[in-house]
Amino acid sequence: GISGVLPSPSPASLNAPPEAHLTAAEREALQILQARFGERASAYMLLQFLRSSDLVKHGRGDPRRAREWADAAAQLIEDVLKWRAELDIDQLLDAKLDRHELFLSMWPDVVSGTDGFGRPVHWQRLGLIDPDKIMGSFSERDIIRHHAQSTEMCRAECMRTATSQGCVFVGQIEVLDLTGFGMHHFSPRFFRLINAVISVDLTKYDGMMQGMAVLNVPWLFARMWGMLSPLLDEETKAKIFLCDARASKAKLRELG
Q1: Would you say 153 and 93 are in contact if contact means Cβ atoms under 8 Å apart?
Q2: How far is CA 82 from the centre of its chain?
Q3: pLDDT tens readout for residues 117-142
Q4: What's the pTM value of the predicted model, to 2 decimals?
Q5: Is 97 helix (H, G, I), strand (E, B) or coil?
């Protein structure tokens, strides 16, 4: 099931989250990809997609199938690089998006704080979104770009943290607060929007999320979760923790 709490590090491992450690097989596959992509993709991106759950069938983690594994990862990376070019994602960190303050007032989204491993925490208050207002004010493409800007900020913080810890990769923690979530969030149009945003997170930022805490989960959310969960693989589901109001307070203390 999807429950429990995010794993807490022991004092000896505070500066070394599990994802920071590369296996010998990962190092071999990473070298193959670095030779192929050169300056086109960072080591962070290469490792991020080498760890995609989609690559299990291509020998992910098996040193005997490193070439097959790396070739499959390369296809994912090429697709992401094309997407990034089409939406001008590489410019988002320094961009001032049109009506960004209005977007944040409608879709509260911020990168703030770290967990016990030093991973950045990406907070979103989805329960405060008014579906009709935000979909009446922004196109789906604009919403994805605004959302991607926050994700790019989190990604940049992950990379800075990795560099400071002397490793290639550090992931992020997602926190979704559902306070205010109600029946108005169940329109087919809003569900399609949420599906599109989740699809971007799962396919374009695959591997970044190391844990997700969904706070203040109302009973109504079980219906939406039933529609969303089939989109997720078992590895991703294992990283998601649904918390009612009481468990949410403990989770917030855990995250600082």
Answers
A1: yes
A2: 19
A3: 889 999 999 999 999 999 999 999 99
A4: 0.84
A5: coil
